[in-house]
Predict the 3D structure of the following.
Amino acid sequence: MISGSMVALATPMYADGSLDWDKLHDLVEWHVEQGTRALVAVGTTGESATLDVHEHLEVIRRVVDQVAGRIPVIAGTGANSTTEAIELTATAAKCGADACLLVTPYYNKPTQEGLYLHFKAVAKAVNIPQILYNVPGRTAVDMLPETVARLSSVANIVGIKEATGDLERARAVIDLVPEDFAVYSGDDATAAELILMGGHGNISVTANVAPAAVAQMCEAALAGDAETARAINQRIEQLHKTLFVESNPIPVKWALKEMGRIDSGIRLPLTELSAEHHGVVRDALRSAGVL
C-alpha cells in the first residue's frame, strides 16, 4: 500500500505554454530527495485538463522512466467518458505507472449507480491498482461513502482520494471500507487530522513547495504522533490557505516560479496569479521557511 506524502505534481511550462522537460526532471529529483513517498503525474495540479492526450501520456512516461522505481508513480487517468478513462489508464499501465488516480466523471453528473458502473468498468478493463478521486467542488458530482464501499470490493480498486475537506465524510468512508483500502486526504488543511483518524496519506498541493515538511507531517501522523504532526502542520498551514487564493494550480505554479523552480508558463483558460495575491503567497512561503 502506498502511504505518506504524495505530491500532486505541477507540470512545468515555459512562458509560451510549451512543456519544460528539464524543469520536470528537476522537480522529480527534488521530490525524491525531499522524502516525498509517491508522485502523482498529470492530476488536477498537473493541468490534466489543458494537456492534449499525447502530452498527458508523455509526462507520465517521462516521470516513470526518471523515477526508475525509486518511489511509486501514480498516473492521473480520469475522464468523464468511460471509454477515454479506460484508454488513458491502459496506456499509463503500459508506460509503467504503479497505480492510476481516476477522478469522478465531471460535467455530465452521473448517478451513484453510474459512478459505480464507470469505475467498475475501468477496473475490469485494466489490471492496475486504481485510486478513486472524489472532488465535488470541481466535478459537480459527489461520490457517496456507500458507493465507495461498493467499489472497495473490486479487486484492483485500492483506495480513494477524498478531497471534500470534510472530516466527518472521511470518517464515514473509513468506517465503511476494509482496512486494506487506503483513504487519502485530498485537502491539505485537514490532511493531518484525516491520517490521525485512520487515513493512509495525503495527495498534496502544498507538497509542491514544501515537500520535506509535508512528508514529515504525514510520517508523524501515520506513526500516531499527533503532537508532532500538528506542530509541523501549524508551520505550513498558511500555505494550505494561500495556495487556493485562486483556482489550483494558479497559486502553486506562481509560488514555484517565485522559488526559482519553474518558469511562468500556465495554459489558458488558467492565467498567472493576480498581482493582488503575490504578497500573501510570498509571505506564506517565507513563513513556511521555503523562500
